[in-house]
Design brief:
With 331 residues, this protein is an alpha+beta fold. 34% of the residues lie in helices and 15% in strands. It contains 12 helices and 9 strands. The strands form 2 sheets. It has a 7-stranded antiparallel sheet, sandwiched between helices. A two-stranded antiparallel ribbon has the order 1-2. Helix 2 (9-31) packs across helix 11, helix 7 packs across helix 11 (266-287) and helix 8 packs antiparallel against helix 11 (266-287). The longest helix is centred in the N-terminal third of the chain and has 23 residues, at 9-31.
Length: 331
């Protein structure tokens, strides 16, 4: 990851961990298995117990299976003896690497335990209070109907960026289905979590523009009706294919406020949650016959400004969704 993304790769590692975590959670839910997601743990204990060197390979997420059968103290119990040599040698993945000290510094800073347990309810930012025109997702929206089963969606899930221009419109119910996905199973989402905005262009019966979405209440509000797709694409290293996407989801957070409240480990929570929601969009888009492609490479402040975010908010992840060449979505 560092070879490709340099010090910025820590973001990608957390986002990818979120994608993998969401896949595991859905599999466990499909099996009816009990589990608990753990993000606040003793990093040193995990790394030593699994033979990670703590520098080139580290633990980011833990999932405890069937937590009802064990005490809380036993959640992350590991053998105190030295791990098998094979585990230790597994950390040595290449003979030569370019070292990025900032990468380790970021991880070390975010390894501090949380200052306080995560709250049970998302605290709405102040700007939510200034919005009065909230609209709720219709209650009669049914879950995504697809000819693909769960396993087939997983098999077909991949990044597709050959989006068709917005005159090929997206059904309104499909947008609502994707938003509903973001608002489902929030009991497995550990707070703090990112905020969500999305750009819509070419959705049947839906005003084009920039929207704020609250997954906890499943409500959305129009922030601006300008076409911002070109400016967003420009911030993402001029990846012009983004302009053709019917939907662009941007996950963002007030990093300073999160750190003041929870400490620097909150950064992991936010990025991992953004990756989890990104995976939901990937699988939802696949089930609907739409394309999906995530972007982690962008100029942060420029993207924030393009999405009308104030200076205290930083974007974390950008996920584009829409009809692609050969997709099943019809006008």
């Amino acid at each position: 990851s560092a070879w490709k993304y340099r010090a910025r790769s820590y973001r990608y590692l957390l986002l990818d961990a979120g994608h993998a975590l969401e896949n595991l959670i859905m599999a466990l839910q499909a099996m009816g298995a009990g589990f608990e997601v753990l993000l606040d743990f003793d990093d040193t204990l995990i790394n030593q117990g699994l033979g990670f060197d703590g520098q080139r390979e580290v633990g980011l997420v833990a999932v405890h299976l069937d937590p009802a059968t064990e005490s809380s103290e036993a959640k992350l119990w590991l053998e105190t003896s030295d791990p098998e040599p094979g585990l230790v040698s597994g950390s040595r993945v290449s003979s030569r690497e370019i070292d990025y000290p900032l990468l380790r510094e970021i991880h070390l800073a975010s390894s501090v335990p949380l200052r306080k347990p995560p709250v049970q309810k998302q605290i709405n930012p102040e700007f939510y209070q200034a919005i009065s025109d909230w609209r709720a997702i219709p209650k009669d929206i049914v879950p995504i109907m697809s000819t693909l089963d769960y396993v087939e969606c997983l098999r077909r899930r991949r990044s597709q960026r050959n989006f068709i221009k917005s005159e090929t419109l997206v059904e309104l119910d499909n947008l609502y289905s994707l938003l509903t996905l973001l608002g489902q199973s929030l009991e497995t989402i550990i707070l703090p979590v990112p905020e969500i905005t999305f750009l819509a262009s070419g959705v049947f019966g839906f005003t084009d523009g920039l929207y704020l979405f609250d997954p906890f209440t499943r409500r959305f509000a129009l922030l601006d009706n300008q076409d911002r797709r070109r400016s967003v694409a420009a911030t993402a290293l001029d990846q012009r294919w983004l302009e053709r996407a019917a939907l662009q989801f941007i996950f963002f957070a007030d990093l300073e406020s999160a750190q003041e409240l929870y400490g620097p480990r909150s950064y992991r929570y936010l990025q991992i949650s953004a990756g989890r929601w990104g995976q939901r969009l990937y699988l939802g888009a696949t089930a609907l016959g739409l394309g999906c492609c995530a972007v982690g490479a962008f100029y942060d402040r420029e993207l924030a400004e393009a999405c009308c975010l104030t200076e205290n908010f930083d974007p974390l992840y950008l996920v584009a969704v829409g009809p692609v060449a050969g997709s099943r979505e019809k006008k």
